Automatic annotation (TrEMBL):
It comes from Channa argus (Northern snakehead). Residues 71-81 have a biased composition (Pro residues). This is SGNH hydrolase-type esterase domain-containing protein. It comes from the Eukaryota. CDD domains: SGNH_hydrolase. Residues 1-83 are annotated as: Disordered.
């Protein structure tokens, strides 16, 4: 008898499951009963009925051979700029909606003269070109050489017959010494008749910035946000009064 009970105990006792980490167990326990006779009462789900997918053969509509070919519109491209603003670091923050600004810090007259042809070729929609340069040249204290560079530059612009050029004059310095200020003033005075003689348009910035500390950054050389806005508005005004 003892051996029989021992055998029954071994048969009825379930095998211990292997240990499973807590985070690998399902969060929701499925509703199911293990009683065989309870399926009729709705406790056990009945056999699943699978629906057979019915394939529908849809033939593409026949294309009329006499219909004209469909035209696909090209992707929309934004229009190019109508104005280029090219210069040294003074024009860094000069922005206009229909213009594109190119700033070359430390550039001289000869540097800008070399870049003009390529920039104009790359932007055929720009019919107006604003050029601001000369401040870095005045630091060399060679006024006669600077004048020759400007005259050579103006002569090179005559080959662009379908463009209108506006020479943006220098702005004065603030607290950078009398010598630099006087050289910029002399350049401003000399540029006005020279620009007109070459069929170009001059933008007078000197009087607008003279003794206006609120328009300058702390370096007394570059315009701040307000100064850049005033420079932009002065350029727009000069273009409008030129008849364009």
């Amino acid at each position: 008898m003892e051996n029989r009970f021992t055998v029954l105990e071994e048969l009825e006792s379930p095998t211990s499951p292997a240990a499973v980490p807590c985070d690998s167990l399902p969060r929701e326990i499925p509703h199911c009963s293990t009683s065989r006779g309870q399926r009729g009462r709705g406790l056990l789900p009945g056999p699943r009925q699978t629906r057979r997918a019915t394939a529908t053969n849809t033939m593409p509509p026949e294309r009329n051979p006499h219909a004209p070919p469909r035209r696909t519109s090209p992707p929309h491209r934004p229009p190019g700029p109508t104005m280029l603003i090219i210069g040294d670091s003074i024009v860094r923050d000069v922005r206009l909606k229909s213009a594109k600004t190119f700033c070359f810090p430390g550039a001289t007259v000869t540097d800008i003269a070399e870049k003009i042809p390529n920039l104009i070729e790359r932007h055929p929609t720009a019919t107006k070109v604003v050029i601001h340069v000369g401040t870095n040249d005045t630091k060399r204290q060679q006024s006669e050489l600077l004048k020759r560079d400007f005259v050579s530059f103006f002569n090179s612009l005559e080959s662009f017959h379908d463009r209108r050029f506006f020479i943006s004059g220098p702005i004065p310095t603030l607290g950078r010494g009398v010598g630099w200020f006087s050289r910029l003033l002399s350049l401003h005075t000399w540029l006005q008749p020279q620009v007109s003689a070459h069929g170009l348009f001059y933008v007078d910035n000197f009087n607008l910035f003279w003794d206006r500390p609120q328009y300058f950054k702390q370096d007394g050389l570059h315009p701040n946000f307000l100064g850049s806005r005033m420079l932009t508005e002065n350029i727009v005004h000069s273009i409008s009064v030129s008849g364009d």
